[in-house]
Structures are given as structure tokens and as C-alpha cells.
């Protein structure tokens, strides 16, 4: 019955609005490309993990080296999580419904995703990724000049302030929508 309802809805649209509405499907190859990119990150994760395993029991395995490799693994996982949010949330918000309502593996956050919530989640994920990069830099600070350390810190603070601004703006917009 839902397919029939969709057909009736599309039939009511005039040709130009129908084409405009259908143009959202032009994003499909972009999301497929992001899925391929996620596959590359999975490959990168396994290469880093193999590198970690082969370093065990060698003189190269210092506490700092171990920490940097593990932070690299965490970084790959966080970027992969970001990709999942963009792929699943973006598809659901901008292309088409995934109809996962009764699926046992539906991510909790997907039930209330919209463009504003997605922006806040993405900004938060970017802060997490930036935090990992900054931590890796600070652990290995002797390898960097003062200018690089300062710029990386300033960029991270900019990400944090931007995320706060996005979250605050979303809060104001949500409050305004609830009043109407």
C-alpha cells in the first residue's frame, strides 16, 4: 500500500518539481564513494594492526610507539564512525528513507536524525578526531616545532568553538520550531 501511495504522490507532481525532487538521487554515487573510502580505512586499520603485532617483542616497541600506534587505530575507527554517520544519516536525511524502524541493528541516533542533529554529531566527531591528532602530536612534541604545536592547538580550539556555535544554533532553531 505504501508503494501505491508513493506512486499517487509522484503522479501529482508537475514535471519540473518531479525532476527537482528526483535530483536528490544524484547524491547516490557520492555515498557509494564514501562506502568505498570506508573500505580503504578498514584496510588501513588492518595494516596498522599488523604493524603493531609485528613490533611486539622488538626494541622498537616503546611505550610511546605503542601509544602512537594505538592512537592511530583509534583515529581510523573514529573516522570510520564519522563516515557511517555521514553515509547513513546523510542518505536518510537527503536521499531516501532506509526503513529500518523495526530492524534490530538500527543505530539509536538514526531515529531522531535531521540535518541539524547530523551537523552537531559530525562536529562532535570531528572534535574527537582532532583531539586524537592533537594528543598524538603532544606525545611526540619533541618532533614538532613550536609553531606547528601552536597552530594545531588553535585549529582544535576553532573546531571546538565551531561545534559549540553549531550546537547552540541548533538548540535555538529547535526551540523556535517547538513554539510553533
The total count of helices amounts to: 6
The SSE string, one letter per element, is HHHHHH
Query: What percent of residues adopt helix (DSSP H or I)?
Result: over 70%
**Largest beta-sheet details:** none
Task: Report the portion of residues in β strands.
Answer: under 5%
State mean pLDDT (0 to 100 scale).
Answer: 86
Radius of gyration: 22 Å
Characteristics of this structure?
mainly alpha
3D architecture notes:
This protein is mostly helical and 180 residues long. It has one domain (27-179). The chain has helices at 2-12, 15-22, 28-55, 63-95, 115-139, 146-179. The longest helix has 34 residues, at 146-179. It starts with a helix and ends with a helix.
Topology, element by element:
Blueprint: H1 2-12, H2 15-22, H3 28-55, H4 63-95, H5 115-139, H6 146-179
Summarize the structure.
With 180 residues, this protein is mostly helical. The protein has helices spanning 2-12, 15-22, 28-55, 63-95, 115-139, 146-179.
Amino acid at each position: 500500500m505504501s508503494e501505491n501511495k508513493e506512486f499517487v504522490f509522484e503522479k501529482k507532481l508537475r514535471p519540473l518539481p518531479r525532476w527537482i525532487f528526483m535530483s536528490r538521487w544524484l547524491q547516490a554515487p557520492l555515498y557509494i564513494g564514501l562506502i568505498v573510502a570506508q573500505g580503504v580505512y578498514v584496510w588501513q586499520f588492518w595494516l596498522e594492526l599488523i604493524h603493531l603485532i609485528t613490533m611486539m617483542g622488538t626494541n622498537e616497541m616503546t611505550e610511546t610507539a605503542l601509544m602512537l600506534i594505538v592512537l592511530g587505530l583509534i583515529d581510523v575507527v573514529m573516522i570510520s564512525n564519522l563516515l557511517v554517520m555521514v553515509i547513513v544519516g546523510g542518505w536518510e536525511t537527503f536521499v531516501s528513507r532506509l526503513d529500518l524502524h523495526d530492524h534490530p541493528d538500527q543505530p539509536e541516533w538514526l531515529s531522531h536524525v535531521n540535518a541539524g542533529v547530523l551537523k552537531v554529531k559530525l562536529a562532535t566527531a570531528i572534535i574527537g578526531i582532532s583531539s586524537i591528532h592533537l594528543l598524538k602530536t603532544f606525545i611526540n612534541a619533541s618532533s614538532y616545532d613550536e609553531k606547528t604545536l601552536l597552530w594545531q592547538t588553535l585549529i582544535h580550539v576553532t573546531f571546538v568553538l565551531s561545534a559549540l556555535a553549531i550546537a547552540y544554533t541548533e538548540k535555538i532553531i529547535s526551540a523556535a520550531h517547538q513554539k510553533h
